[in-house]
User: Fold these one by one.
Assistant:
Number 1:
Amino acid sequence: MDFNALVTQIESVAQGIDTEIQNISSDADLEAVRIKYLGRKGLFAEFTSFIPSVPQESRGKIGQKVNFLKDRIGVLLEERKRQLGVVAPPQEKISLDISMPGMGQAVGRRHPLTQTIDEICAIFVQMGFTVKEGPEIETEFNNFTGLNIPLEHPSRDAFDTFYLESKERLLLRSHTSPGQVRVMKSRTPPLAVVVPGRVYRPDAVDASHSFMFHQIEGLVVDRDIKFSDLKGTLEVFVKAVFGDDIAMRFRPHFFPFTEPSAEVDISCIMCKGKGCSVCGRKGWLEILGSGMIHPQVFAHVGYPSGAYTGFAFGLGIERIAMLKYGITDIRLFFENDLRFLTQF
Ligand code: PHE
């Protein structure tokens, strides 16, 4: 290569190099171009090797040109490399319109039965009761025997109680009254306790029956508890739940674990006692069972004979909630339909 050929070649490289490097689209091509020009056997190694044969007076100028172009190629390759690395796969554009309404969070709420249980417990807590829960799986003793329910009583029948397949004759409690037995076995009076919870009975399901429902048991035991204490306590409760103008009456009844026993009715909250379809034209609605604790129950829990008196009551939560909210089908509580649940 003579001097003129060298100059021509340098100039043609200088002219085309920008486009050549800009057209590179992969790391492999980038490396190939680098080797072609800057490699140990590349074009610039060749140029440099010619410089000594260039006439003395032009050597400096040519050397400058070569070095300038060499540096420039280095810079262009670096730049292209950065561009190739930065160009990430096409990304979805995220646009934010701050004038759009936000996405509302659905707010959860407590189940109407839970609300009713909490409300009723709060009324009794205000009167000095404590709240104690018991297990849903119970012994035959706590559910029946301790409550003075005789062996031949129909409620013990497998048609009326769910028994578990166990040697100990365990069962699903058929009422919350075993809560009385548990509390009295573990504590000495004075006692004022409410026991809310689920209970189970093998009933055919319809608008007013469910094989599982909820009760709250109430229990007060001390040295001189009278029937009038039961009456006063329930009166405060009924007025707090249904309002001051609700009338209440006690109807003699029978429970093996209370003596005397009574069922409590309130004046119909729909017709105010005149008689309607909700109260079956009677003007009264039955809401709970109650009575003075039977001495035999005290004996079963190991209290000394004659030492204490007390009262107990048991009320159905679903019944109270249905009356309070005008719900006509008990199944609605257990279907978890949000159209129903969000109304409370
Ligand atoms: N356990 C009774 C029932 O389920 C209700 C009750 C409780 C009655 C306490 C008297 C005293 O029907």
Number 2:
Amino acid sequence: MKNFLFFVAILTLSAAQALDVNRVYLDEDDIRSRFAGNGIVRVCTNGESIVGGEFKRGLVVPSPARLCLVTDGKAKSFSATFGQFEKPNRSMLHLRVWCDGKLIAQTPELNSTSGPHRVTADLKGARWVEIDVHAVGNPWAGKSVIGDAFIEMEEGFRPRDITCLSRQLGVLTPKSSDEPRFNGPKVFGARPGNPVFFRIPVSGAKPLNVSIENLSEVPGLKFNSDLNLIEGRVENPGVYSLKVVAKNAAGEARREIKLHIGEKLSLTPPMGWNSWNAFAHDVSAEKIRKMADAFERLNLADYGWSYILVDDGWQIKADAKEPRRDKNGVQLTNERFPDMKALADYVHSKGLKIGLYSSPGPVTCTGYEGSFLHEKTDALTYADWGYDFLKYDWCSYGNIAKGETVQLKYLYPYLIMGRNLRALKRDIVHYACAYGFGDVATWGASVNAQCWRTTRDLFDFWGGILTAMDQMDALWRFVSPGGWNDMDMMVIGDIHWSGGKTRLTPNEQYTHVSMWAMGAVPMILGCDLDKIDDFTLSLITNGEVIDINQDSLGAAAAKVQCGEGWSCWARPLDGGDFAVAMVNESQLEREILFCLEKAGLEGRWAVRDLWRQRDEGEVVRGYRAKVPGHATHLIRLSPREGARLSDRLGDIRENSWLRRAEKIRGQQQSAGCADCP
Ligand code: GLA
């Protein structure tokens, strides 16, 4: 009898083991690390649990988060226990399971008192499976726990990475040619009498000689040919056309660059680098200098990258024992930033501009000294130190503004700082980092801000890019030269302060950069430039893509055509060309047909593939492209025989950027969002 029981026990054990072999738990390292979303997904430590529930193994998952796995029809089922994390929050969370893009199971929306919920889903036949955690209401809030979560696979199979679902694009940008090429802005602005500082972006084999033929026509302007830097001060308002020539052994290029002396700054979206994603609190003057060196080594300024921005962490902590300001109220810095002026001088000596960070509240987002009640002193100090850009981050101002009416609450602190910056004898770009609060896009320009954050922080997952695109679709009309919708730092390259590359697939990175170009969104890198790889470098040194972002017309793209899982966006460019982005929003490769009529275009147009920098012939009516999953095909259309704008649009050259964009939008609305007829 004893032997029999022993035999049964062994059988039971091996059956369980056999079963375990087919169970792929979501907390296994290679699966967990594929979760992408708003923060790190980590294994639960001992004692951490779901509110009101128990489990043996599990993950703490911030919302939103998404896991995509290729199961090749070899999966059987999924099950998991889902609930709020032990420190409950106010948001309602639920877990959803998708097979081949279709929702097949979900938990109810759970609040902190709901207790855990076991969810099971039949995955038979699925090519790919997506599991996501979503918060209802505010999608960027809340932590959940997924416990005892596994996929049962046929024996011998494991889920594969999502990138194998669709062909992934490699480096498309051709090697930069030896011939001189002007990149980036053709136009820039400065206030009368304030220092001018503009480095002319031009690529090509070195040595490369750049000169301005008619420099002497603009009193007060100087040219530093070592750095290709336009400097000086111009007192008289007006538009000055500068005839710039670049020559090297391979050839010569010419460009007319316009300097607007007037009230507007940032006539094209700012392009640069910010310290937060790469270094967070660990930022130091030393690291900032290294990034300026990297700009030089990588020739980034030749493509228009011009700002180095110090984010949070240069100030004194608000809870520190030491003073946070001197007797005159001037902000003091921590030991990692011994000399702010010297740091600015160093960055300027490379022909780059420098920015810093503060908050309208008493403390910044991570508890450093803010500018509340010191706005004027701080603006003067930043100018005195020689800074060119201020990221002004809402943070603790919410506590100050309690009880105010909505619009005033959000607008007021930016109005104060905007006025103080405007009064300086130095141009400091004002970035209102207001997360879309109080519809910042509608009033950003009125508080002397040149760009404004319309979204929460961007994280490196597909949902973040789609959210930004939704914002572009909703807010494109608030964009114009000198006023830009911002969607946060770009999440390409090595962007995790804990170390690690972006979790966006290569295809998704093409969509990310293409759409930032189309939306005229400030392109601010967040990666450690010392660790940059060839692929990331190729994404940021494609002059033809950057030209779209920096186009002088400053009209952001409107969505002109869309269907299930795809969309086409068009933006008119200075000189009569159009840029078009064909976005595959689905996981599988698909053919997208862009219908010219939907953007109000008639006649014959020449097509240029901007990522490959390749002419694609001429088109009438429709243009087709095979676009891999989550990738974007980006083209430039130039007018050829009979090219015109449909009667409903009139002559686009006669219209201001706003009217042009309005008309494109009007066309889309009347035509509807559907396939070509
Ligand atoms: C917020 C911002 C980030 C960064 C941090 C710094 O989260 O959105 O971009 O500036 O604050 O504390």
